[in-house]
Amino acid sequence: MWLKPAIVILFIAILVSLARSAFFLIKDQGNINRDRTRKALAVRVTLAALLLTLVTYGVLTGELTISAPWHHR
Length: 73
Fold this sequence. Notes:
Layout: H1 3-27, H2 36-61
Helix pairs in contact: 1-2
């Protein structure tokens, strides 16, 4: 029951992190001496790994199923 809301929250957090890193990249004008963009991208990668782990867990435990009409069982 907790898995789907956690996946949605992680997905939204990834989008927020993406927006932050794009903002920092534009604001810093590509200055590589700034660590803000690099840190925001590291957060996004970590969140994506967590999201992938949760989806894998959900599929393996049967909490998440494929309900696409073209998926044959």
